[in-house]
Amino acid sequence: MKNMTVQEFAMQTASNEPVPGGGSISALAGSLAAALTEMVAGLTIGKKKYAEVEEEMKAAIEPMHAICEHLLDDIKRDSESFDLYMQALTLPKETEEEKAARQEAMQNGLKAAVAVPLSVAKRAYEIMPYAEVMVTKGNKTAVTDALVATMMARTAVLGALFNVKINLESIKDEAFVAETTKEVEVLEKKAIEHEQKILAKAGVSKSVVE
Q1: Distance of CA 135 to CAs 84, 97, 143, Å?
Q2: Which sign does the torsion angle of CA 152, 155, 159, 165 carry?
Q3: In the chain, which stretches have pLDDT less than 50?
Q4: Whole-model pTM above 0.85?
């Protein structure tokens, strides 16, 4: 999917096909957030006015590039993450043993479907501290790009976590659900608060993004 043109990807999303869906779009949003963050760093490096922060800018290039590439791959991985569950639905269910095996396979499939979007959310959140550096210390002519990166990263986190939460509803492993739910709640809170912190530093009113 990452090799499609923008138009092809948009038209595929708009079609009646179930993928790419919200999870893949969240991964795309995260990849663009990382790319924008890297761009602002690049626009700051080499400028005399920003010589004092040049090393911080340089330190952002490699991790942002890596996250961008990984999230681009996650666009497809997210679309495929539900495959194990769908395959489990096709298993035989004539005997009690078959029913039990099918149910176990379905549950394992759902856990796999949780793992990918959760990793997308975690990776997208890693962008936010770098975006904050770009907003506060990067080239001021590109501050709006850094702000968009911030908001895209937040969207990627929350969007991916929507997929986690909906799949958790069908998982019967109470300990797994409780642990993952707590992880989701913490990550959601951190992403929202970090975005507001960055926007406030840039003098953007909270009401603007609500």
Answers
A1: 41, 58, 5
A2: positive
A3: 208-210
A4: yes
